[in-house]
Amino acid sequence: MRVKDWLYYYRALQRVPRGAVRRITRRTCRGYSQMESFLAGKCGLEIGGPSPIFSKNRLIPVYDRCRRIDNCNFSPETIWGAVGGNQEFGTQFGSELIAEACNLSMIASESYDFVLASHALEHLANPLQALTVWKRVLVPGGVFLVIVPDKRATFDHRRPFTSFDHIQSDFKNHASEDDLTHLEEILRLHDLGLDPPAGSPQAFRERCLKNASIRAMHHHVFSPDVLVRIFTRLGMKVLRLVIERPENIVVLAQKRGNEIGQEVELHNLGFLSQSAEWRVHDPLRGCEELPS
User: What are the DSSP E strand ranges found in the chain?
Assistant: First the structure.
């Protein structure tokens, strides 16, 4: 299928409420049974939520399975809405924290069984720094459940994938949220036709220039391969990697307490092979080739 054809069907799919699609198909994320074992009855932290994708009968039900979940946002109010009102997602919500994703100093180490982040990592200028911080608050054996957009089905489809070297460079250079390194690329390649809330080109430019206070800009465009390399760099074992329609790359990665980096690296290499399960079951395969 050509990219142009896929974008046509994607626009049509956007008009169908995702909750309705999920209720009709009654299908959770591929490999969800493995994910659920790390979430059910456990305590977690979500960065940038709450997120409907984790609600009951959605792609990855968490809120109705976990014992308690705290929520962290950078501001009391974002362009996606005011922080609070979590009770619509369930009674198990605990604290609502206002903190930068790269600075969770108010949280004690090894406080949570899992950390969730849905479509949040791409908004961070220094994702490796953020993940390092999140890893600190995980108990040994705890997991990250991270979801990022698959560019092939989003307004980022024209942009190149961010390289692992660039991610490492941002970490070494202590990139902060006022970083505008990608601004020219974003303004040139962002598909406004797939992002109506962004408004006109001028309105979008003005919003991007104020990104330090708004945080709507996608600093990075992640490929599955680069995500695997990031978690390997963190010494975390990738347990599942799944691509799910309409636009989700889902990674489950575990904090290891007793394995050396080489063991984790050898394990994660399987997710980089051409025969990796996520490639075989890629629902968008053929829309655009992913880099090896």
Answer: 43-47, 68-73, 77-78, 81-82, 93-98, 112-118, 138-149, 236-244, 248-255
Percent with pLDDT over 70 in the chain: 85
CATH number of the domain that residue 177 is part of: 3.40.50.150
Q: Could you tell me which residues are beta bridge partners of residue 252?
A: 145, 240
How long, in residues, is the chain? 292
Q: Is residue 285 part of a domain?
A: no
Q: Rounded to 10 degrees, what is the CA torsion of 205, 74, 94, 59?
A: 40
pTM, to two decimals: 0.88
How far CA 153 is from CA of 16, 144, 272, 283, in Å, comes to 15, 24, 22, 11
Provide φ and ψ at 112, rounded to 5°: -130, 150
Query: Confidence class of residue 84 from pLDDT cuts 50, 70 and 90?
Result: low
> Is position 147 within any domain?
yes
Range of the domain at 161: 3-280
